[in-house]
Amino acid sequence: MILKITDTARNYLTQMTEQKDRRYVTLSVSGGGCSGFKYDWDFTDTDETGTLVDDILVLDAMAEMFVFGCTVDYIQELGGNYLTVVNPNATAQCGCGESFSI
User: Fold this and answer.
1) What are the DSSP calls for 10-67, one per residue?
2) What are the backbone angles phi and psi of residue 62, rounded to the nearest 5°?
3) Segment 30-54, tens digit of pLDDT
């Protein structure tokens, strides 16, 4: 499997797609952020633009090499709730977890 989605993250993504009246969440990687690359989240109704993971997440084809072996998780803390990508391939990551380098 290219990428794993925890049950907590899957539940959150399902809730978000229902609220946005969309079928899938998309994950892509683009240049930017303080560490070189950043994760970009969005919504779509088609899975034709990438790889479908767990029937909820469409992974951009260009992002596959950056997130192979990663885990998407949803964290609930006192300070806030957020999606995170646990990337064992990253050599550096910014403090907020939004960007990374490989």
Assistant:
1) HHHHHHHHHHHT-SEEEEEEEE-STTSEEEEEEEES--TTEEEETTTEEEEGGGHHHH
2) -70, -25
3) 887 666 788 899 999 998 889 999 9
